[in-house]
Design a protein that fits this description.
The complex is a heterodimer of chains A (226) and B (220).
Chain A: E1 15-17, E2 24-26, E3 36-37, E4 44-46, H1 52-72, E5 76-80, E6 83-87, H2 89-93, H3 102-131, H4 140-150, H5 156-171, E7 175-178, H6 180-198, H7 201-209
Antiparallel strand pairs in A: 1-2, 3-4, 5-6, 5-7
Helix pairs in contact in A: 1-3, 1-6, 3-4
Chain B: E1 21-23, E2 30-32, H1 53-72, E3 76-80, E4 86-90, H2 92-101, H3 105-132, H4 139-155, H5 161-172, E5 179-183, H6 186-203
Antiparallel strand pairs in B: 1-2, 3-4, 3-5
Helix pairs in contact in B: 1-3, 1-6, 2-3, 3-4, 3-6
Classes of the chains: A mainly alpha (226), B mainly alpha (220).
Bound molecules: zinc ion.
The site of zinc ion (ZN) has 8 residues of chain B, from loops.
Organism (chain A): Paracoccus aestuariivivens
Transmembrane segments (chain A): 56-76, 107-128, 155-176, 182-205
Keywords (chain A): Membrane, Transmembrane, Transmembrane helix
Chain lengths: 226, 220
């Protein structure tokens, strides 16, 4: 059993390796609000925030509600010379649904809608018991790892900037009005950004490992008792 | 968190690799080198080894191959006034030139940056990082290379912006006789190129940047 601040160079217990430069650090409990950085490359190793789990859950649920609005309300409307067209988020993804471009439709739906929704659900699943100091649900490890793997592929914020660009591009040629779904999507970006600020992967891994207890120790390490 | 033998910044940097241990890149936990999977997060444990660069090169090559047709085939097909006023097909570069021609400097500039400067810069940056990875470097070089890697990793996904612009325009500009826009095959090639290059950057192990550094850390 490891006590605070001790480490074992043969088993690696009590140590943290920087994922960017491999420098070894001794694991310590951090106060909420503190940030641990790698002494060599300055990468953030952990940055626990007070009440982070509860806030991430609240923000994830908010993002799910906003996503429902973003999908079902009209997104953009265009009109020129009496011809008009209204499109929803599905319409945008379906733009590629002709023939050989079909796979791109699936990919677009995934990056804009599917992955943000899936990540929100996975985060709630992982953190719900942890926020109440209970032991995590089964497969919480896989759920959180999947959520972290999918992070770069969830491209909602790039989509919003792309929309803004497209509007500037056709703005001179036709009248365009923004639907409620567009604003829901902008809200989604803010909510996801806030959620990322509170997310410290190392802190969540520690919490999963410790079964929801607030300690940072290695008491439950399966490796400690061979 | 502190370094095992840390007293000041001139202390030697002990790495997991030098200590005969292996660090999990997903959660930071440290395990003996004999372990295969991280028992905390389930990720496969990989030692910082130049062999992992094969995946980087393979994805990079795939991304580069798809970038060629992405520039040759049309990205957008525009039909105005039922084809009377013109039916144009524009490639990535053609589209940028068209935007600049009509004085749309802002959008033209963003598309030029996201679809041409960023992808080409990324190919060069990843290829260079993979070539010099694991070779002796000074601490200063290593900091610079890690900075470059972080820029590449951060900016890579933003190249997808042009694909989204094409998708939105195609969905929105369906005004029957007046004007309609359809996506071209280059959109798929470009999206694949961006995705493969992202995978290439993700396969690069930044710990290799620090291999071969002298034991003393001279942090600035
Ligand atoms: Zn791990």
């Amino acid at each position: 059993m490891q006590t605070e601040g001790t480490y074992d160079l043969t088993t690696g217990a009590g140590l943290v390796a920087c994922p960017r430069c491999d420098a070894l650090h001794v694991e310590h409990d951090l106060e909420p609000g503190e940030t641990a950085r790698c002494i060599r490359c300055n990468a953030v190793l952990a940055s626990p925030r007070a009440g982070a789990f509860t806030r991430i859950i609240a923000l994830s649920v908010t993002s799910l509600v906003l996503m429902v609005g973003a999908v079902f309300f009209p997104f953009l409307e265009i009109s020129r010379m009496g011809f008009g067209n209204e499109t929803s988020l599905f319409g945008v993804a379906m733009a590629f649904s002709h023939g050989a471009l079909m796979p791109l439709t699936v990919a677009l739906m995934a990056t804009i809608i599917g992955l943000p929704v899936l990540r929100a659900i996975l985060l709630v699943y992982t953190l719900l018991p942890l926020s109440r100091r209970r032991s995590p649900f089964s497969h919480a490890v896989g759920a959180f790892r999947l959520s972290e793997t999918l992070r770069p592929w969830s491209m909602a914020e790039i989509f919003v900037i792309g929309t803004a660009l497209a509007l500037v591009k056709v703005g001179g040629l036709a009248t365009i009005s923004l639907g409620p779904a567009f604003w829901a999507f902008c809200g989604l970006i803010v909510v996801n950004g806030a959620s990322n600020v509170f997310t410290s992967a190392t802190t969540i891994w520690d919490a999963i490992e410790d079964g929801g207890a607030s300690t940072d120790g290695r008491e439950l390490s399966r490796n400690a008792a061979p | 968190m502190s370094h095992p033998e840390e007293t000041d910044h001139a202390a030697p940097i002990m790495t997991a690799h030098r200590a005969g241990l292996i660090g999990c890149r997903s959660c930071g936990r440290v395990w003996p080198e004999s372990e295969i999977d991280c028992q905390r997060c389930g990720a496969t444990l990989v030692a910082p080894d130049r062999r992992s660069l094969n995946a980087v090169w393979a994805w990079l090559l795939a991304g580069f191959i798809f970038y060629i047709p992405a520039n040759m085939f049309p990205m957008l097909r525009t039909t105005t006034l039922g084809g009377i006023a013109g039916k144009t097909e524009s490639t990535i570069l053609g589209g940028v030139l068209e935007l600049l021609h009509y004085g749309n400097w802002f959008v033209g500039g963003v598309v030029f940056f996201a679809s041409i400067i960023v992808p080409i810069g990324k190919f060069i940056a990843i290829a260079w990082l993979a070539r010099v990875a694991g070779r002796p470097a000074t601490a200063h070089d290593a900091h610079w290379r890690l900075g470059l890697y972080e820029v590449v990793e951060f900016i890579g996904r933003w190249s997808m912006i042009d694909v989204f612009v094409v998708a939105i325009l195609s969905a929105l500009v369906q005004l029957g006789f007046v004007a309609s826009i359809h996506p071209g095959p280059a959109a798929v090639c470009f999206a694949l190129s961006v995705a493969f290059t992202m995978l290439s950057a993700q396969s690069f192990d930044p710990r290799l940047i620090w291999r071969g550094l002298p034991l003393r850390s001279r942090k600035d």
